[in-house]
Task: structure prediction
Amino acid sequence: MYLKDFKQHIINSPKADVHSHLHLAGSQKRFKRRFPNAHLKFPESYDGLTGMIHFIYNHLNTVMLTDQDLVNFMEIAIESAIDDNVILLEASVDLGLANFFGQSIEKIIEVVKTLQEKYKSKIDFKPDLGINKDLNLEKVYSDGIKCLESGSFYGIDLYGQEINKDLSPFVKLYDIARDLNIKTKVHIGEFSDHESIDKTIKLLHPQEIQHGIRAVDSTKTMDLIRKEDIRLNICPTSNILLGAVGSLEYHPLRQLFDNGINLTINTDDLILFNASISEEFIKLFELNLFSLEELEVIRTNAF
Ligand SMILES: [Zn+2]
Result:
């Protein structure tokens, strides 16, 4: 298939994005349209997670000031997914965003419900509850459980710094999520090594791992991932712009795929990394890293 035909094919195909952080998931194009007076210059790359957090705090957050701004960011995220023919969006809504509503977790739950309702004819929006590992644990449990029990969240996801972080305080929360039939995801193995992936699997028993790319360094870890039937939700451009991977040509994706790992391709933070799902697929096709048939397997894996 020619590149031009592949482009048309992938753009028209229904897609899922299962690793995305809702308030950062709008396209830069939609952002500029919704916030015409904001003059943000998006960096071409970031100095790791720390550099990315620096940009969010010092630049993006000068635009995201009020609760209405936050809702606008969330709406452009869902609209950007629809623009790319994403029909299933599993995006995390960060528990800490209750900040925008005077710490009212009920208000966050209400916003999530309203967004689902507003866009339901166009997209299946299934929010994950997103938890930063550094959030106060008391809050994680009190507000987190309210969210999980609200019926508005379909998954749970944990993120933040990966190296030397003790995840045992979250074991109980993951047990509660499982009891409520909520899908369990966790960020690990983007910047941390394969051993951290092993440890996380044994501790939290996630159904899916966000990134997990360093599994490629260990046959044992890849065996464990296959044995536990865990899916890796990978975001290639995010990995490259954050410096976790040197270039797409050397991305562990190919090797993970060849080792029989079930994986998907996602956007992570579209507003920062500026590559839609279709664009991620097009780059992989263009570089001849995967065949059309293999890309179809990856695309449909996400559903
Ligand atoms: Zn992520």
